[in-house]
Amino acid sequence: MTGTAVVVGAGVGGLATAIGLRRAGWAVSILERRTALERYGTAFGIHPTAQAALDRLGVGEAVARRAVPYRGARIRTPRGKVMANLPLERIERKAGRPELLVSRPYLIDALVAELEAFRDVPIELGRTVSDVEALAADHDLVVGADGIHSAVRTARFGARSGPRHVGTVAWIGIADFDSGIHGETWGRGRFFGMTPVEPGRTNWYATVPEATTADELRGFFEGWHDPVPRILAETDPATWIRYEMRHLFPALPAFTHGGKVALVGDAAHAMTPNLGQGACTAILDAEALARAVAEHGPAGLPASLRAYDSERRRSAQRVAFGSRSLHRFMTTEHTRLRNALVRMVPS
């Protein structure tokens, strides 16, 4: 082993970081405040760049086996009129592979299976981190992968950057039938999305100004084109997940601190989900950090963290800014101008 690292957080970013560091020869342990890994069902979009990062981490093939390609998606009006195509075919032509969608449980399981193959990367569940300085004293590297409420970020960067509400509520769920159409429907101050997640099932998500009950949510989409009302009518509200839309603001001045602490994923750049890049950026962070650490070794850790910050911070923050800007555009009340602009986008 060449160094010791502790990863705080066992989500996508934390597990992927642990894999990368262990493959680089480091001794790695993971601390997770929850008593079980989050395996609730929703679909992650995996862009070809993130797929390539998963390949380098050794788990790309395992993820691809349980993923489905995302093609033929469109942006529609509530009446069902097509305004534009999502640029999925262009992405596939450029990258040589399609955008993939994979359910969260499958992605988590693939990452955990890779870690278990090492046999020496413990995941300690139910562990709340309150003393980051003690972790830093006991390890060569501390990685904060502990989400938008990151204890590691707060300990090293203070509370200036933190969760900020964007004024809307998101709901997500899985319908046990194929919707037949995929993409997003944009209304006034709200939108509804449908993607494949596995054969015979549809991942759906909705964003509204406010809704606290299933009936209220259904009311927001009453009269919209098929199958939007059907999805809400035929899926069990007990399986729906509701959360306040938030992002990290203001942007951090660095993703690293003190030559031995690094942040990845939502801890570094939590974003709204409008670009579908949250999991992708976490994976890219993880692979870039592990690659930099492998290149410089324990003695060169400060240089490793500088290289990681240089590679990832501006890129990830641009994605976060773009996603937040798209959220404003999608949920505007000025739909006539917005729709006209959307129709001008080349297919």
3D structure, described in words:
Keywords: Monooxygenase, Oxidoreductase. Residues 5-319 form the FAD-binding domain. This is Monooxygenase (Secreted protein). GO terms for molecular function: FAD binding; monooxygenase activity. By secondary structure, the chain is of the alpha/beta class. It has a domain at 4-70 and 100-164 and 247-325: FAD/NAD(P)-binding domain (3-Layer(bba) Sandwich). Helices cover 41% and strands 24% of the residues. It contains 13 helices and 16 strands. It has helices spanning 12-23, 48-57, 60-66, 88-95, 104-118, 132-138, 151-157, 214-220, 228-234, 266-269, 278-296, 301-330, 335-343; strands at 4-8, 27-32, 43-46, 68-69, 73-76, 82-85, 100-103, 123-125, 141-144, 162-175, 182-186, 191-198, 201-208, 241-249, 256-257, 261-263. The strands form three sheets. The protein has a seven-stranded mixed sheet with strand order 6-5-11-12-13-10-14. The longest helix has 30 residues, at 301-330. The radius of gyration is 20 Å and the shape is globular. The mean pLDDT is 96.
Instruction: Return the CATH class of the domain at 4-70 and 100-164 and 247-325.
Output: Alpha Beta
User: SS-based structural class?
Assistant: alpha/beta
Percent range for β-strand residues: 15-25%
- Low-confidence segments, given as residue ranges, are none
Intertermini distance: 51 Å
Shape: globular
The name of the CATH superfamily of the domain at 4-70 and 100-164 and 247-325 reads FAD/NAD(P)-binding domain
Helix content: 40-55%
Query: Which fold name fills CATH's third level, the topology of the domain at 4-70 and 100-164 and 247-325?
Result: FAD/NAD(P)-binding domain
Treating each run of at least 4 consecutive H or I residues as one helix, how many helices? 13
Largest sheet: 7 strands, mixed
Kindly provide the radius of gyration, computed on alpha-carbon positions and rounded to a whole number of angstroms: 20 Å
Element pattern in H and E? EHEEHHEEEHEHEHEHEEEEHHEEEHHHH
GO molecular function: FAD binding; monooxygenase activity
Organism: Streptomyces sparsogenes DSM 40356
Protein name: Monooxygenase (Secreted protein)
Pfam family, one: FAD_binding_3
